[in-house]
């Protein structure tokens, strides 16, 4: 098929050359063969490299196809094609054979096609299975792309539960009893990155609103006193049943080795406590009791969290880091309270 097509277009060019005077009177067969072979002096890759070929020439498109598509025409060493000189039938045969040899190196032969057809017949069942699997994968990819949450936001979820039972003695020596109870918290975190090096984090929490006996005390008469120290209290006590905003903070790096975080809901322990036994309810003891940084004001500031900022500067990318943070628990309040100043720079707040 391809040979017949080539002869239809290619012989038109060679026939035209033969009818055009003057002829290739001084061109030998070896010269014409050299013209079609890929030698280092005459091979061209674009018809524009032939100085005596113009787009207005009647055979320009045919010559362009032979040069740029099939790569079987070369010019003379001086960069000319000499298209107005004719060739003998022997020279045409030599040139055509050289050109077909060049083409046969680029396309499969009939024997090659027969071999491929035999392999297709032999592995028809396997090919059908693979085709079905590829179609299935494409359908699943289309579904994922159509239903994806966001191209910049990843959604993480967590469910944490605790079952407790036991007795407790309060700080005044009173003894009370507590029944078995179950506490639960469900969290959804949206991690959004706009540049790949920043993080906007939004966390929503809810739960069953349970109370743990570690966070409550009994008075001398055995009644609940509601302690203020809360030793060992579980972090997610009293969470829910409504949905609350646990975190809204944006972290970015203005310069190398410096990370800055700012937001209306974050915590001092984010910046100044690296304790591996605290600050991660999904992996640790879920209690502020294990926070090992005495500088953190736990109940008044770190427990509720608030508005503020913090930074972490890793000096020279080495083992030394400088960290600082400021959080105002009542930073969202513009109205002065009865006993506290409140507001972003009022009490209660913490700067470390």
Write a concise keyword list for the protein shown above:
elongated; eight-stranded antiparallel sheet; 23% strand; 352 residues; 3 domains; 8 helices; alpha+beta
Give an account of the 3D structure:
With 352 residues, this protein is of the alpha+beta class. The protein has three domains: 2-107, no CATH class; 112-146; 150-351, no CATH class. The protein contains eight helices and eight strands. It has helices spanning 2-19, 29-36, 60-69, 89-104, 110-122, 124-147, 269-272, 298-302, and strands at 153-169, 175-192, 199-207, 244-252, 258-266, 306-314, 321-328, 349-351. An eight-stranded antiparallel sheet has the order 1-2-3-4-5-6-7-8. Strand 2 (175-192) and strand 3 (199-207) form a beta hairpin. Helix 2 (29-36) runs parallel beside helix 4. It is elongated.
Entry summary:
The protein has 352 residues and is of the alpha+beta class. It has three domains: 2-107, no CATH class; 112-146; 150-351, no CATH class. Helix content is 28%, strand content 23%.
């Amino acid at each position: 098929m391809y040979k017949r097509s080539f002869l239809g277009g290619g012989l038109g060019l060679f026939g035209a050359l033969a009818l055009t005077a003057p002829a290739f009177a001084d061109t030998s067969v070896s010269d014409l063969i050299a013209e079609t072979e890929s030698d280092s002096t005459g091979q061209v890759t674009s018809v524009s490299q032939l100085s005596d070929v113009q787009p207005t020439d009647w055979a320009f498109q045919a010559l362009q196809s032979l040069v740029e598509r099939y790569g079987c025409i070369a010019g003379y060493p001086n960069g000319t094609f000499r298209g107005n000189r004719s060739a003998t039938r022997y020279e045409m045969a030599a040139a055509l054979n050289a050109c077909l040899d060049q083409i046969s190196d680029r396309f499969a032969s009939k024997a090659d096609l027969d071999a491929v057809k035999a392999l297709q017949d032999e592995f028809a069942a396997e090919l059908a299975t693979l085709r079905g699997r590829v179609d299935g994968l494409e359908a699943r990819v289309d579904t994922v792309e159509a239903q994806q949450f966001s191209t910049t936001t990843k959604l993480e979820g967590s469910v944490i539960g605790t079952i407790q039972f036991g007795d407790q003695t309060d700080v005044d020596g009173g003894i009370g009893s507590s029944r078995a109870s179950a506490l639960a918290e469900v969290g959804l975190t949206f991690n959004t990155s706009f540049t790949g090096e920043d993080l906007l984090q939004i966390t929503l929490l809810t739960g069953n609103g349970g109370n743990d006996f570690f966070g409550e005390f009994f008075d001398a008469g055995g009644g609940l006193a509601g302690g203020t120290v809360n030793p060992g209290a579980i972090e997610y006590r009293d969470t829910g049943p409504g949905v609350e905003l646990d975190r809204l903070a944006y972290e970015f790096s203005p310069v190398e080795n410096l990370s800055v975080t700012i937001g209306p809901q974050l915590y001092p322990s984010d910046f100044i406590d690296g304790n591996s036994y605290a600050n991660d309810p999904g992996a640790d003891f879920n209690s502020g009791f294990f926070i090992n940084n005495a500088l953190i004001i736990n109940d008044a500031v770190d427990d509720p969290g608030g508005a503020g900022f913090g930074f972490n500067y890793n000096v020279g990318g080495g083992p030394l880091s400088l960290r600082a943070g400021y959080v105002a628990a009542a930073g969202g309040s513009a109205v002065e309270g009865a006993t506290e100043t409140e507001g972003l720079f009022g009490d209660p707040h913490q700067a470390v």
